[in-house]
Amino acid sequence: MTWILGGVARTLLKGSLMMRNLALSGALAIGLSTVACSAPPEGDELVDEIDPSVVTDLDRVFAAAAAESGVPVDLLAAIGHVETRWQMVRGDAEHDGMPTAVGVMGLRSTVADRAAARAGVDPEELALDAEANIRAAALLLADLAAEQGVGGADLAAWAPVVAAWSGIDDPDAVAQYVQGDVFGTLAEGVEERAESGELIAAIPAHPELVSLAGVAVPKAGTADYPASVWRPSPNYNSRGGHRVSHVVIHTCEGNYAGCWGWLRNSAAGASAHYVVNSNGSEITQLVREANRAWHVAASYACSRNGNTDCGKNGVSVNSFSVGIEHAGFASQTTWSTGLVEASTKLTCDITRSHGIPRDRHHIVGHGQLQPWNRTDPGRHWPWTRYLDRVRAHCGGGGGGGGGGTTPPPSSTAIVIDSNNANNNTARAKIELTGAWSSASATPGFYGSGYYFGATDQVSAPATFWFHLSSAQSRTVDAWWTAGPNRSTSATFIAYNAAGAEVGRSAKNQTTGGGSWQQLGTYSFTAGWNKVVLSRWAAPGKVVIADAVRVR
User: Which of 97, 245, 351, 526 is exposed most, by the fewest CB atoms within 10 A?
Assistant: First the structure.
């Protein structure tokens, strides 16, 4: 669910059922927008957590904070994007010694009290209210600027302020943060949208900053993965004869430069083999795959991993795994397509090199193996799409044996996800009409979540669009999450590019969740064809719009 909490609504965070009724009015009170939702009928969707991590209409909030503080608005927005991609996060303690971070600006625990006092709010509000978080960050930046005698609209002059803001000790990582990340974002410009297509915020390109945006990148050196940058960490030791058999997925609980900068600090006592930046444009390698990085503080217990590889029980997970950190937070709701693509190519390479099965028992999350104090990569990590892309990059199959429960898409298959951020919108996109609600409470969803809509006698469907270059006969599959409140006859209708119906199929969505279910084989024409999921039925149930595959 996509909400921003403000005014009186932010005080209701601990009462999520009350908040479902009051959050919208609180959001309107501060002028921020939310994705439209409707109350679902009785059923398991009523227990979906309200997720305050994606907010919209932030441009206005950045502008107001900039006007009050004197910090250039695009600089303020760029820092927020580098820290969190403009999501309302609540960071976990991924690395001992690293401060946690909260809110759109990723305000660190080391400055939280000072930031709250500067903005005149309670420290807890920084994690609950996007407006308070951004305003507090702007005022702290203004204080740093005053200390350094910096001011005005010249963005380049603010570079030392950005460096001080980073909180990073490693000089190479500071350069990455300032030049490569913040000024790189300003030079290129950026725009982010919610799953519904609603604008979150945007920064125009600043071509005058291109010369400042470059950062000297070391040569690959002894990196195992050719696409990565070799930035060696001293924090590793021998695997002790153990063979690599698993890949562990982590989130940094912070930004890219701060992550790899800390993990190559000997004082950290931690490391990972790789770190992927938030848009997938760069990967750092810190430790050779042949060596043991220090990324999971747990011994293996097969009971936490589907009772597989029980012969490894009691062995340190680090001894037989490769760890991949990702810039971002376990609490965020979306992950960029670039990050997923870069990471899945890397994981494909690792599984190919070491003969690792490409399934959920051998490509695993940190929180799965260390659940008492870690949750990363979080409940919104797109596991199904991730494994599909790993297999696709590797040409299908399951690595060294095993394989997953989800078949890899063929090279000509088109998958239309319920989140347009996961789609190549030149070939596939979803369009929602009427009141649909986003969710991720029921496991087994495709990508990063799904939509549900209440059945009613209304023409307000979910439309899965796909483009074909020529007339073709294609088989269509659908993916949904199953539950007792689902429709037993959810109707999918296929249309060609001329708008003529070419077939339909009614499916029982109380069963068959978490896998592709065939709808039929239909004759489509060149252009934009579509599969429509209808809500037209007697009230009292929901239909699930998750993903459609055309193969």
Answer: 97
What 3-state class would DSSP assign to 463? strand
Give pLDDT tens digits for 206-235: 999 998 887 766 665 668 998 899 999 999
* pLDDT higher than 50, residue 23: no
Give domain status of residue 219, yes or no. no
Note whether residue 223 is domain-resident. Answer: no
Task: Show the domain range for 533.
Answer: 414-550
Q: What are phi and psi of 549, to 5 degrees?
A: -120, 135
Give the integer Cα–Cα distance in Å for 207 and 39. Answer: 46
Q: What integer is the mean pLDDT of 482-502?
A: 95
- The identity of residue 110, as a single letter, is T
Q: Could you tell me how many residues make up the chain?
A: 551
Q: Which is nearest to 257 in space by CA: 181, 351, 160? A: 181
Provide the token pair at 366.
Answer: 């940190």
The three-class DSSP label of residue 213 is: helix
Residue at 517 is within a domain: yes
* pTM (2 d.p.): 0.71
- For residues 335 and 382, is the Cβ–Cβ distance under 8 A? yes
Q: In total, how many domains does the chain have?
A: 4
Q: Is residue 48 part of a domain?
A: no
Could you give the angle at which helices 130-148 and 112-119 cross, rounded to 10 degrees?
100
Average pLDDT for 431-453: 85
pLDDT for residue 495: 97
Closest CA to 361 of 397, 398, 319: 398
